[in-house]
Design brief:
The protein has helices at 2-19, 23-77, 93-100, 102-106, 119-123, 129-143, 160-169, 188-192, 199-212, 220-223, 229-235; strands at residues 112-113, 170-171, 181-182, 239-240. The protein contains eleven helices and four strands; from the N terminus they run ααααβαααββααααβ. The chain is mainly alpha-helical. The longest helix has 55 residues, at 23-77. Strands 1-2 form a two-stranded parallel sheet. It has a two-stranded parallel sheet with strand order 3-4. Among the domains are: 54-77 and 90-171, no CATH class; 181-240, DNA polymerase, domain 1, CATH 1.10.150.
């Protein structure tokens, strides 16, 4: 604290000597400088925080999703087998899901295409409701459509029961084509709106466009270190580019 106080007093003297400010004006300038520094460093701090927390959470969600998928596939392969009392985990996600789903099986809920289903139909799924259905639709629109079941874990607020319900009652059409982003023509705001792209990555895309004109191949994003491999693999299905014919 002693060093900080000395630095602050030195800055005050410099500001007064250079600009002739009063004590109140000098203090105001210091406060303004502090706010500017906080504003400039906040994005980097948030990015570091999410890099430290998000990967582990996402990996745990993917492991859970794989577990649910495996259990549901076993149920589909042996639908007529009587329930086994031995070796069954009563706390497994699929087991808990079956208990929550009893009223839904009575009404015989049909499977929905996750990329065309509306909010009202999603609300009828066990464990979803109005709030979660709205989040699913919102994320689907930002994403450009779901192309992998693992993407269900990326929707904010979905727990294991909600994900199990979606896996059981929705599907992704084999001929579905997601909405694509043109990295040669779309504007900064459009690229930034995609949940897989950060502000810094979009900046690098536009820096490349400004220097070289256009991308000729999508792989140039990876080759020029604009996107890291993990992001590129997630994004490539959502990317396209327009190249003028000479």
């Amino acid at each position: 604290m002693c060093i900080i106080t000395k630095v602050a007093n030195w800055l005050k003297r410099q500001i007064r000597d250079q600009f002739g400010f009063s004590k109140a004006e000098t203090n105001g300038v210091l406060v303004l400088l502090g706010l500017i520094i906080c504003f400039l460093t906040a994005p980097h701090g948030l990015k570091w925080y999410y890099q430290q927390t998000s990967p582990s959470t996402q990996e745990a969600d993917i492991v859970l999703l794989d577990k649910i998928l495996a259990e549901l596939k076993q149920q589909q392969l042996a639908p007529n087998n009587p329930p086994q009392k031995k070796g069954v985990n009563p706390n497994s996600p699929a087991k808990s899901y079956k208990k929550q789903k009893k009223h839904a099986t009575d009404t015989q809920i049909k499977s929905f295409d996750i990329n065309t289903v509306d909010r009202q139909k999603l609300e009828t799924l066990p464990g979803i409701g109005s709030t979660r259905s709205a989040r699913i639709i919102k994320y689907r629109n930002k994403l450009g459509g779901f192309i992998r079941h693992e993407q269900y874990t990326e929707v904010y607020g979905l727990d294991s029961l909600s994900i199990a319900s979606m896996l059981q009652c929705t599907y992704i059409s084999s001929n579905f084509q997601p909405r694509k982003i043109d990295i040669n023509q779309d504007d900064f705001k459009t690229l930034l709106a995609h949940p897989y792209l950060s502000y810094e990555q979009v900046q690098r895309i536009f820096q490349f466009r400004n220097k070289r004109g256009r991308f000729t191949r999508i792989e140039e994003l990876l080759e020029n270190n604009i996107l890291e491999k993990v992001t590129f693999e997630k994004m490539k299905a959502y990317l396209t580019l327009y190249v003028e014919k000479m």
